């Protein structure tokens, strides 16, 4: 490791790696510093008994030629490194409510037709909903890759309107409303808080076509690290940053846990903003700002059961299954007796033509407070009571899954679990939150964190900035890098890719 870089990036999640790629591609000497042994943040995968599991990036959308993510992947030199497996066009997402199942189909016309089959008396409302979703997506220059000569803000109507109110304005049937917000776990939506634009942009992203990444999303992280190094940049694992030094009104260096001091002209932090501020002792960061960041509400965390299946026993499910035992909203407000109120079940994709699943996951909401008593313990050394806690919750999830997919239980060869504490250990998110800070339509300005900070050469990136998800984080990374390179210059590069 050198002692001086043009840019030091703290954290190797997608946001940090995308920034590292962009800046090293443009001639900056970049160093990416990752505290863990594995790069990637929520792109990390792990293997147990030959079965490979995702930790965060389970499926993606809009990756076909001419679509938004496809263009960004071209720019990031990712297309040649990835193989995609398209989910069922006639039902890539299955929403299970009240014993009935409803599907999301790929393509807006197909989406509407499949929904109308279940709700024939609501055809006009369904078409109005589809038009509303498209209107929001088309109005965002970077999500639609149009009108890129300006950084246009979304209409205040969609920022200050909640998801539930947005849907209710175009759809009258309460059950249909629930079905249309059935993928809430993709953004951990909260009734009367989550802004409408988040729902609309994510739905548009997947309706345009949903895919799994064959072999796992860690291929994204590995490709970006390889590219950064090919451009002359560097990426270091097991390199935990503990302090950011400031001098003459600017950030001047990063101190590692081993005492190494790395000087730099710019710093980009991909770790949670609160954790970043804890590394800084500078009057440039006012206490009122620290207090605002530290008091921001976080999205809920999760408990996951990773299933390794016996060979050729569980048919491959080419869709994602969202199950609700009751109300779609408020599933994070469970009690000890009614957990889980919802879960997401999906299979890993070992090949583009899988017939049987080798591995799957069940993901349910879990609040950090449920595991807070084990805070400060380390993976593998949390005690028998913690292991019992995980076992009990795993059994509940598997039993619930068996009710929906009879025979699955006998096909399980082994299972593994993770809790909010695990998520904290491997991704560094506050309270193990799945998507970082909750965006609140009631306080849009105070729940949005800007790329810029009061330290002129220190910037933020990642899921807490701009928006979460693979597309939101990439767009956020471009906006972060535009603070150094210029927005118009950078967007021309993207479009020429």
pLDDT under 50 segments (min length 5)? none
- CA distance, first residue to last residue: 31 Å
Main β-sheet description: 7 strands, mixed
Radius of gyration: 22 Å
Roughly how much helix do the residues carry, as a percent range? 25-40%
Mean pLDDT: 95
| Beta-strand residue fraction | 15-25%
User: How many strands in all?
Assistant: 19
Helix count from the secondary structure assignment: 16
Overall shape: it is globular
Class computed from helices, strands and strand pairing: alpha/beta
Please explain how this structure is put together.
- This protein is an alpha/beta fold and 497 residues long.
- It has 16 helices and 19 strands.
- It has helices at 14-25, 68-75, 108-118, 123-139, 141-144, 156-159, 163-170, 174-180, 196-207, 218-230, 273-278, 287-294, 384-404, 420-427, 469-485, 487-496, and strands at residues 4-10, 30-33, 45-48, 51-54, 60-61, 84-86, 93-97, 100-104, 210-213, 234-236, 241-247, 250-256, 261-269, 301-309, 320-324, 342-347, 359-366, 412-418, 458-460.
- The strands form 4 sheets. Strands 1, 2, 10, 11, 12, 13 and 19 form a 7-stranded mixed β-sheet that branches. A 7-stranded mixed β-sheet has the order 8-7-15-16-17-14-18. A 3-stranded antiparallel β-sheet has the order 5-9-6.
- Helix 1 links the parallel strand 1 (4-10) and strand 2 (30-33).
- Helix 3 (108-118) runs antiparallel to helix 4, helix 4 (123-139) packs across helix 9 (196-207) and helix 15 (469-485) packs across helix 16.
- The longest helix is centred in the C-terminal third of the chain and has 21 residues, at 384-404.
- It is globular.
- The two termini are 31 Å apart.
- The relative contact order is 0.18.
């Amino acid at each position: 490791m050198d002692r001086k870089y043009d840019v030091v990036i703290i954290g190797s999640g997608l946001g940090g790696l995308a920034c590292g790629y962009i800046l090293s591609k443009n001639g900056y000497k970049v160093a990416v510093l990752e505290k863990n042994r594995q790069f990637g943040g929520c792109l990390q995968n792990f293997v147990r008994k030959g079965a490979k599991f995702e930790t965060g990036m389970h499926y993606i959308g809009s990756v076909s030629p001419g679509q938004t993510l496809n263009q960004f992947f071209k720019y990031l030199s990712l297309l040649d490194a990835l193989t995609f497996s398209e989910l069922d066009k006639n039902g890539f997402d299955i929403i299970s409510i009240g014993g009935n199942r409803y599907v999301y189909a790929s393509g807006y016309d197909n989406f509407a037709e499949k929904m109308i089959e279940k709700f024939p008396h609501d055809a006009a409302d369904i078409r109005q909903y589809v038009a509303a979703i498209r209107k929001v997506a088309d109005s965002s220059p970077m999500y639609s890759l149009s009108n890129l000569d300006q950084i246009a803000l979304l209409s205040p109507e969609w920022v200050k309107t909640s998801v539930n109110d947005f849907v209710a304005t175009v759809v009258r049937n309460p059950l249909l409303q629930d079905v249309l917000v059935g993928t809430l776990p993709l953004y951990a939506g909260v009734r009367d808080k989550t802004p409408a634009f988040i729902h609309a942009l994510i739905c548009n992203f997947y309706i345009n076509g949903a895919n799994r990444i064959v072999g796992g999303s860690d291929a994204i992280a590995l490709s970006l690290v390889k590219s950064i190094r090919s451009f002359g940049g560097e990426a270091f694992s097991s390199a935990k940053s503990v302090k950011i030094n400031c001098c003459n009104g600017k950030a001047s260096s990063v101190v590692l846990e081993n005492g190494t001091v790395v000087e730099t002209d710019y710093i980009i932090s991909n770790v949670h903003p609160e954790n970043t501020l804890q590394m800084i002792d500078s009057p440039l960061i006012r206490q009122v700002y620290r207090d605002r960041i530290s008091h921001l509400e976080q999205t809920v965390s999760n408990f996951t059961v990773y299933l390794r299946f016996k060979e050729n026993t569980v048919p491959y499910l080419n869709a994602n299954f969202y199950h609700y035992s009751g109300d779609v909203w408020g599933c994070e407000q469970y009690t000890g007796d009614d957990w889980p109120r919802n879960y997401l079940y999906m299979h890993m994709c070992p090949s583009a033509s899988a017939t049987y699943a080798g591995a799957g996951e069940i993901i349910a909401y879990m609040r950090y407070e449920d595991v807070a008593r084990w805070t400060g313990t380390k993976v593998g050394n949390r005690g028998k009571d913690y292991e019992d806690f995980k076992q009990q919750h795993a059994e509940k999830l598997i039993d619930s899954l068996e009710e929906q997919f009879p025979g699955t239980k006998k096909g399980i060869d082994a299972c593994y679990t993770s809790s909010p504490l695990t998520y904290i250990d491997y991704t560094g998110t506050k309270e193990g939150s799945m998507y970082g800070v909750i965006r609140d339509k009631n306080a849009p300005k105070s729940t949005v964190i800007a790329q810029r900070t009061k330290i002129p050469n220190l910037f933020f990136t990642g899921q807490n900035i701009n928006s979460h998800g693979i597309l939101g984080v990439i767009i956020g990374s471009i906006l972060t890098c535009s603070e150094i390179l210029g927005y118009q210059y950078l967007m021309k590069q993207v479009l020429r890719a």
